[in-house]
Amino acid sequence: MSRGPHQVPSQRPAGRAPTRAEALAALLAEQITVGHIAPGAALEEERLAAAHGVSRTPVREALRLLAATGLVEHRPHRVAVVARPEPGRLAEMFQAMAELEAVCATLCAGAMSRADKARLADRHAAMAALVEAGALDSYRDANVAFHEALYAGAGNGYLAELAGATRRRLAPFRAAQLGGGDRLAASHAEHGAIVGAILAGDGAAAAAAVRAHLAATEGAWGMMAGHPPARLG
Predict the structure, then answer these.
(1) Structural domain range at position 145
(2) Are residues 210 and 124 in the same domain?
(3) How distant, in Å, are the alpha carbons of 34, 46, 50, 62, 223 from that of 20?
(4) What angle do CA 192, 223, 104 make, to 5 degrees?
(5) C-alpha to C-alpha distance for 221 and 15, rounded to whole angstroms
(6) Which one of 14, 125, 128, 214 has the lowest number of neighbouring Cβ atoms within 10 Å?
């Protein structure tokens, strides 16, 4: 499944083809948010230039663009790295994400039509085959689409923008944790609880299921990173 374009700041006028720097920034953003480049990984200009057949100038500009999104930490005279916030800051981000998605799920339970709910259920059911096959990359794509369907189903465009922006900031951590242990199966089961509550029109249960899902996601990342969240029991 395909995802929408990642938001990399640019002054490019509509209709103009992207520069090499802009195209490289979009490519790197994609690789970061799907977990192909892990949080904390070094982004060496010389290596990136060689790998993508460009000079160091567009690489430097691409990293500057990515730094503006928060995906990359780029400091003068230091190698840029994929952003890896301090545990406390990351916990705050996960908490905000959980509440935004909980509101979306609550609204979905009441706002989605029967046809929309059926499509959400079908989307969830199709992901079972990916879990069975251990198709990590495909599941990551489907996972993004699943959560974006919740944002759209809420029927509140501004809320969807906020949730989408926060999700993009957390995307590297959410994608990376799916590769740990039995997270594919666990994630799918957690999605099932969300879908079941939405189908039943139970907004409170849908919100609770989303919060549990994000807590498990945060916990899985914390275990991988060596700092499990204290609030998980």
Answers:
(1) 87-225
(2) yes
(3) 21, 15, 14, 8, 37
(4) 35
(5) 40
(6) 14
3-state helix, strand, coil in the chain (%, to 5): 70, 5, 30
Strand partners, 73: 81
Examine residue 6 and state whether it is found in any structural domain, yes or no. Answer: no
**Residue 48 shares a structural domain with residue 137:** no
Helix (H) or strand (E) holding 82: strand 80-82
pTM for the predicted model, two decimal places:
0.74
Q: Is the pLDDT of residue 216 over 50?
A: yes
Q: Given 50, 65, 82, which residue is the final one in a domain?
A: 82
Take residue 81 and report the two structure tokens written for it.
């790295």
Please check whether residues 78 and 93 belong to one and the same domain: no
Residue among 138, 111, 213 at smallest CA distance from 170: 213
4 domain residue, yes or no: no
